[in-house]
Specification:
By secondary structure, the protein is of the alpha+beta class. The chain is 38% helix and 20% strand. Strands 1-7-8-4-3-5 form a six-stranded antiparallel sheet. A two-stranded antiparallel sheet has the order 2-6. The chain starts with 10 loop residues before the first strand and ends in a 16-residue tail after the last helix.
Length: 168
């Protein structure tokens, strides 16, 4: 999968309509269409109060993860329960809209608006306020991480460069 072309990128906020439907952003629908999945695969995120969504690419990632675990291990059972046992396949209507289940909306704290957030092989659906708080925290943690990386890669003390023509 190429980055940006075949994956989900960017973010977009949309309102739920009076019937509880929300339009999947056109670029995200295009990725789903190329992926060939009929509908939208959705499960509660393992790490955040958001929904992980996608098609065949997301399911491949899940099955690859499960395939690395022993078939009857507790870890595989836990991942299977969380990633497959709580999932839904939503129908996308002809206008590119889906209806989120009440349990999905409750899990993610969604009431009237959602923010779609691209993650390459998947995208997430967030309650907009929660996403903005998550984004601020992510940026803060990344700034700290970059500072740590920079401090590890400081060049040792080297003498300043000599200028040509300077007398020795």
């Amino acid at each position: 999968m190429g980055l940006g072309v075949d994956g989900f990128v960017s973010n977009c906020t949309s309102r739920l309509d009076a019937k509880g439907r929300v339009s999947i952003p056109a670029p995200f629908r295009a990725v789903l269409s190329r992926d060939g999945f009929d509908g939208l695969y959705v499960h509660p995120s393992l790490d955040e109060e958001a929904l992980d969504c996608g098609g065949h690419a997301l399911l491949r990632e899940i099955h690859d993860l499960l395939g690395k675990l022993s078939p009857y291990s507790e870890e595989r059972d836990l991942f299977s329960t969380a990633l497959l046992g709580t999932s839904e396949i939503l129908k996308i209507d002809t206008e590119g809209r889906v209806i989120l289940s009440e349990s999905a909306k409750t899990y993610a704290g969604i009431a009237t608006e959602v923010t779609f957030v691209g993650h390459g092989f998947k995208f997430q659906i967030w309650e907009p306020g929660r996403f903005l708080a998550h984004l601020a925290e992510a940026r803060s943690q990344l700034r700290d991480f970059r500072k740590q990386l920079s401090s590890r890669h400081v060049a040792p003390d080297t003498p300043p460069p000599r200028h040509h023509g300077a007398r020795e």
